Amino acid sequence: MSNKSLTLGIRLVKAVIIAGGFGTRLRPLSCTRPKHLFPLAGRPLLDWTVERLANSGVNEIVFAVNYMAEAFSKRYGKSAFGMKTNYCQESEPLGTGGCVKNAEHIIGHDEDFLLLNGDVLSDLDYIKLIAEHRKNRGVATITLHRVKDPSRYGVVELAEKNRIKRFVEKPPKEKAPSNLINAGIYTLSPKIFNYIPANKRVSIERAVFPALARNNELFGYKFNGLWIDIGEPHDFLKANRILLGSHTDKNRIAKTAKIGNTAKMNNPVAIGEGVRVGEKSTIGPFVTLSDRVTIGKGVDIRNSVVLAETAILDSSFVEGAIIGEKVSVGKHVRIAADCLIGDHVTIHDNLRLAKGVTVCPYREVVDSPRASTCLM
């Protein structure tokens, strides 16, 4: 248990992480890996959350999984960062409420627990959240974050003492009761199980929270810190920029990486194990090169993430793109912003991929595709 949790008299035991989504807005990259394990600043997205939970005193995690469930058990095994790990797999998608009910036998009924969407990056203080929940004595306390456009999220109307008077899931912007949105991080009482039927697909946002609000059992906790929903490519790259920029050394280069003498690293960057960068290449700012990536001579990469074992050959240029594993990018290739390149893709020499091009896994690109083209 962390010193902070001891000081505040808070005992955190279990946290449930919802990690069953298909990541449709991050396809084709999510066709071959869960979005929750996409690398950010050299580490999988979930690692940042799991480590913060451990540092807050949580000692047991339940991963509610469905899509590519084996990837999570392979990554985290039976324990992670000193915490016991459990996996509760759905035979079919049960929704955000149904997956909680599905894990009831692991969570138990003895104490409050945390519930988190696994695709959210945040520096929320979990100890303060659970302390606020226990002060309110409600069934659920939702972390609330203020945004400009609430139409993508669940939106709340607050009453006295942060009680949530009304909860509306994804309303039109002009009909939203406020710009305080559901940040996807909750503290829940075991009483929540009474609101969720077993063996049914249930949305906790659409079915459970409105019912709790009507019963005056739903509360909010306002949070103004770092919060990003990693649902779309621009959000993913934004999170990568923030995490890279937050490092005090600003430059994370693995000891086994080999950087050419005339290559330039524009901070901040994260360079993985076994990476090779050729002479006169420029990497950064805000670039993550995963393990065993090979960069040729005179290559320029900015504001991008390149996954493991990909090769980008001489004199190519990449800006604002996400490139999958084991991709082969030829010489004198230009890859523009918002491009998503799936695993095992081959891109021939001298091609230009315009803004917004997506390429599905195992595709061979022999012509320069137009903007917003999807190569299946």
Total domains, how many?
Answer: 2
- What's the CATH H-level superfamily name of the largest domain? Spore Coat Polysaccharide Biosynthesis Protein SpsA, Chain A
User: Per CATH, which architecture of the largest domain?
Assistant: Alpha-Beta Complex
Please identify the top-level CATH class of the largest domain.
Answer: Alpha Beta
Counting helices, strands and paired strands, the structural category is alpha/beta
Number of helices: 8
The radius of gyration computed from the alpha-carbon positions, rounded to a whole number of angstroms, is 22 Å
Under CATH, the topology of the largest domain can be stated as Spore Coat Polysaccharide Biosynthesis Protein SpsA, Chain A
Overall 3D shape: elongated
Strand order of the largest sheet: 5-6-4-1-7-12-9-13
Number of strands: 35
Fraction of residues in β-strands: 25-35%
Q: Low-confidence stretches at least 5 residues in length (pLDDT < 50)? A: 4-9
- How much helical structure, as a percent, in the residues? 10-25%
Major beta-sheet overview = 8 strands, mixed
